[in-house]
Amino acid sequence: MTSDETREGTIADFAEVVVGGTPSTRRAEYWGPGITWVTPTDVTATAGRSLAASSRSITAKGLIESSARLVPKGSVLVTTRATIGPAVIAATDVATNQGVTALVPRPGVSGTWLYYWVLANRDEFVSRGAGNTFPEISRAKTRAIPMVVSSPTRQGEVVRVLSAVDDALDAARLALVEARRAKNALVEHVLAGAAAGAWGSAPLETAAGADGVFTDGDWILSEDLKSGREVRLLQLGDIGVGRFLDKSSKWISRARYDALHCTAVLPGDILISRMAEPIARACIVPDLGVMAITAVDVTILRCDEELVDPRFVMQTLNSLRFRYEAEQQSAGGTRRRITRKKLALLNIPIPPLSVQRELADLWAAADDLVTAYERRHVALAVLKRAAVRRLFANEDTRSDASLIGAAA
User: Rounded to whole angstroms, how far apart are CA atoms 270 and 331?
Assistant: First the structure.
């Protein structure tokens, strides 16, 4: 019901709906410094609420002589092709391609409020998508989406609360980036000293010692996966950079494990991905509580702990310095990989064991800090989604302060 507090209509009543275009790629004079030209990839790659730059730009001539249109700063840019619904606010005047629709707010509608309204009503966009190759929502269907616009006062309240959450999210994102950068710099600084001859070095395979393991995982076929659920198959997706991601859910039977003479993966083993991305990333396997094996594109390293600290080795494998060396030894077209033999011969520093342990403890503390910032960032992202839902569900505005407090 329409009242003094709200106005009802469709998007077309409250925003100009502008679909973008692409200048001819055969005309070099259309492309170059000038006008920010936004694609869906630019929108989805934007971490915050505002987009200030894009991967490509077009010239004034390219704008004039194509179907692209310039939309003003403050417009809401919504992806309406393939991935429908992600949105950002234009931080400058921009043009877009056909996959991004600009909503230019009309008088009485806050652009920032409109951005949050789009987030709250993403399902309205997604449900209207159609297409055989990929879903797409037309300009006509976008214009017809029902919309209820709050009073200017209420718009201001919503923007104040959600901007506070977004400000906290931006700060957490920056802190996370800085924590990761500091951790990486710490590792690289130590390894640079090692490369300069501060310690000795040895091929990676020597970390296994005489009684350890340095071998590839097993070749498991699809029919093997139907044999039972007694032995878990760890896959490339389980291997993160320095952390076990625990994503896989494939199994084989114990009888099949015995028949194939599989190599067991034990808690404390290092799993090294021989395929990108990134190549040679490594993690230490936690205690999974079940028998486990791994795939053939993964190398298992079971260290001799009288020679090396597995944590030190794992951090070294994930360093930019080691990754560069691994990439130089990799081959392949679509998906590059490094052979186990080449991986085995890549050198790692071997400082005294006591030093390895001290460095491993230091790097683990840095990782703990990164993890804390990651959790803070995730928690704020969850809070933002909940806050958007709450504030566009016409709930009591007196609860708004609690959201600001939660973001602090």
Answer: 23
Which element (helix H / strand E) includes 149?
A: strand 146-150
Look up the CATH number of the domain holding residue 382.
1.10.287
Same domain, 239 and 371: no
The secondary structure element, H or E, covering residue 58 is strand 56-58
Q: Where are the alpha helices (DSSP H) in 203-299?
A: 254-260
CB 307 within 8 Å of CB 209: yes
Kindly state whether residue 1 falls inside one of the protein's structural domains: no
- Please state, in angstroms and rounded to a whole number, the distance separating the CA atoms of residues 107 and 131: 34
30 lies in the same domain as 140:
yes
Looking at the fold, whether 214 and 290 belong to one and the same domain comes out as yes
Give the pLDDT confidence of 232-254 residue by residue, as tens digits. Answer: 999 999 999 999 999 999 999 99
325 and 232 within one domain: yes
pTM flag (> 0.85): no
Choose among 228, 205, 189, 378: nearest CA to 302: 205
Would you give the DSSP letter of residue 230?
A: S
For residue 160 the two structure tokens come to: 């104040």
